């Protein structure tokens, strides 16, 4: 493998099966497969219909069939509000699924990179959350993701990696940036929340970082544990929307600030989702760039994807 040798299976044999990506039909999964192909990596993507990560037998069979050195779990229950009423179902995917994957990886010797979220924190801090900050989820979604993190780190203390991300956007799926692009064309003004702070993160940027982390894991240069995969800097949803309007050539003054009370949702949203990135230094990797720079580079592809979707509808 470029950037590092193959992993070693539990029986001492070499594993040269490349990468296996679960949840491959999602936005991050699509971008990860693209990044892996561009990097010359052998990769297999399995979507929801291809693999139920809560099915232990199916997971073991998938790993036996593909023999991956690295598994990246992008599969998740991401319907944050629905999880409040369906926590058991969300827990199956976000908690039990990662445990099943981790145990299968432990048996096969594969490295596991598991994607998690800022929602595992309370969201009431006033400085970036460190990777080892105490977890205090306030929503069902956050609770189920915290269970998944614990399962991975417990089963794979030396080969398990948890990568928390937040405010993810890209061309390959529905997300806030695409929604604001669409609304700019149909709304005279937009009221957008200005009391939630976070780090808009381009899924393609995160995908590149995951490739680097997986290679580092195989090479033995990236310590196992928790990493934060979010862009640098911070803003609010209001600030992000104004930047989207600016990139569209629209008047940012059409975006008006409001508070979370104006958009009450079943699941509480973190008021502060800014994550710290200190641990990347230990892995010899640079954290992601500033969110504004990433958005500017991402924008042509995200805009084109939204325009194509609007045309089809």
From TrEMBL:
Belongs to the dTDP-4-dehydrorhamnose reductase family. It comes from the Bacteria. Catalyzes the reduction of dTDP-6-deoxy-L-lyxo-4-hexulose to yield dTDP-L-rhamnose. This is dTDP-4-dehydrorhamnose reductase. SUPFAM superfamilies: NAD(P)-binding Rossmann-fold domains (SSF51735). The lineage of its organism: Bacteria, Bacillati, Actinomycetota, Actinomycetes, Kitasatosporales. InterPro entries: dTDP_dehydrorham_reduct (IPR005913), NAD(P)-bd_dom_sf (IPR036291), RmlD-like-bd (IPR029903). Keywords: NADP, Oxidoreductase. NCBIfam families: rmlD (TIGR01214). The keyword Isomerase does not apply. Residues 20-299 form the RmlD-like substrate binding domain. Pathway: Carbohydrate biosynthesis; dTDP-L-rhamnose biosynthesis. Pfam families: RmlD_sub_bind. PANTHER family: DTDP-4-DEHYDRORHAMNOSE REDUCTASE, METHIONINE ADENOSYLTRANSFERASE 2 SUBUNIT BETA. Its EC number is 1.1.1.133. The keyword Zinc does not apply.
